[in-house]
């Protein structure tokens, strides 16, 4: 499970938590943290010392709504070329998936970066890049927008902002959160200060964590220490990469290209100022405007597949094995929802590492 030199450190951290005699529930909001938690068998080790860690809305594919995926399918059916990251292909909707559209002969292309989509625009009549991800990946989209773009290239922005989702989780009050483990990669962009309000206003202890097993264990220990000392701070366990101010250049680029807008997330109602749309000066490359006629003509779709509880998972209310469809009607080969599709989705992770749960 651990490298030999790490095993002793892991045991010392777990012993320190055990001595505090706690019964606490933390939430993280990062698919990579969930992968580390399950792949390295940390979940049972932490539960054994009184720590339960739930996954929140930290999977960008998962929080992208059915309506947004259906928009991309409608654009493909209308003859537009759609460029997407691979995980988006199998996300199911009532009108099929982007993979189904590709199988019907529609021009749906898997890309590794937005630059791939820009380059491919010279090969097609209309290129639409479906941009997903949090503050981690949105700067890459912003970076191409400030360059000279092909006239036929547009962006359908599904980028999300993480702090508004945390506001929603806390204010919905569906279950008690004793502490938050914040994602290292998002924090490398936005810094530490955007989380401060959750500690000062709501009294929630927080730790920004890296992605190694020892990072997660140490973040749990740091949260326990805050709680035992009666503190609610934002501490940075991932100081080797995350700076207090984040990446100011990337933040300025985001502010130049995007504006925050209200938008629904899968499993959530509309969350104010929780998504990025392109500013007005980029209207000529905004797919929601350029292809508005196609999008307006798309019939409405229901948000969740009957029997899929992905939305509840994204709010931290249940774990994968509590969904009756998990591993039965819903598998990575035949997913009922995006939590089973994405490599950062809780169900996909749990299915891959079931022996370590």
Describe the structure.
The protein is of the alpha/beta class. The chain has a domain at about 65-160 and about 245-295: Rossmann fold. Helices cover about 40% and strands about 15% of the residues. It has helices spanning about 5-20, 30-40, 40-50, 60-65, 65-75, 100-105, 115-120, 140-145, 160-170, 185-190, 195-200, 215-230, 250-255, 285-290, 290-295, 310-315, 340, 345-350; strands spanning about 25-30, 50-55, 80-85, 110, 125-130, 155, 180-185, 205-210, 235, 260-265, 270-280. It is globular, with a radius of gyration of 21 Å.
Quick take:
With 357 residues, this protein is of the alpha/beta class. The protein has helices spanning 4-20, 31-39, 42-48, 60-63, 66-77, 98-103, 114-120, 138-145, 162-172, 184-190, 196-200, 213-228, 248-257, 287-290, 292-297, 310-314, 338-341, 346-352, and strands spanning 24-28, 51-55, 81-84, 108-110, 127-131, 153-157, 179-183, 206-209, 234-236, 258-264, 270-278.
């Amino acid at each position: 499970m651990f490298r030999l030199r790490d095993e002793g450190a892991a045991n010392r951290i777990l012993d320190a938590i055990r001595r505090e005699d706690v019964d606490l529930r933390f939430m993280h909001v990062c698919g990579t943290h969930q992968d580390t938690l399950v792949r390295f068998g940390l979940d049972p080790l932490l539960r054994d010392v009184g720590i339960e860690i739930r996954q929140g809305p930290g999977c960008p594919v998962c929080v992208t709504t059915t309506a947004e995926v259906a928009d991309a399918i409608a654009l493909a059916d209308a003859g537009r070329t759609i460029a997407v990251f691979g995980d988006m292909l199998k996300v199911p909707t009532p009108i099929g998936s982007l993979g189904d559209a590709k199988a019907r002969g529609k021009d749906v292309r898997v890309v590794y970066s937005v630059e791939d989509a820009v380059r491919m625009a010279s090969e097609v009549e209309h290129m639409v890049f479906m941009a997903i991800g949090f503050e981690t990946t949105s700067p890459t989209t912003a970076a191409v927008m400030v360059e000279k773009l092909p006239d036929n290239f547009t962006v359908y922005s599904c980028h999300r902002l993480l702090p508004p989702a945390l506001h929603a989780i806390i204010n919905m009050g569906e279950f008690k959160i004793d502490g938050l483990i914040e994602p290292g990669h998002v924090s490398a962009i936005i810094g530490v200060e955007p989380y401060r309000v959750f500690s000062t206003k709501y009294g929630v202890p927080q730790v920004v964590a890296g992605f190694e097993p020892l990072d997660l264990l140490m973040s749990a220990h740091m949260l326990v220490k805050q709680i035992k000392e009666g503190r609610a701070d934002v501490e940075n366990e991932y100081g080797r990469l995350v700076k207090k101010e984040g990446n100011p250049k990337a933040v300025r680029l985001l502010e130049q290209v995007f504006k925050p807008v209200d938008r629904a997330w899968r499993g959530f109602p509309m969350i104010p100022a929780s998504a990025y749309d392109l500013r007005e000066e980029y209207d000529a490359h905004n797919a929601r405007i350029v292809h508005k006629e196609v999008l307006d003509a798309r019939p409405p779709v229901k948000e969740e597949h009957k029997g899929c509880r992905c939305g509840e998972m994204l709010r931290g209310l249940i774990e994968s094995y509590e969904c009756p469809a998990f591993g039965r009607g819903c598998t990575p080969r035949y997913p009922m929802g995006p939590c089973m599709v994405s490599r950062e989705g809780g169900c996909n992770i749990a299915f891959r590492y079931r022996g370590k749960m």
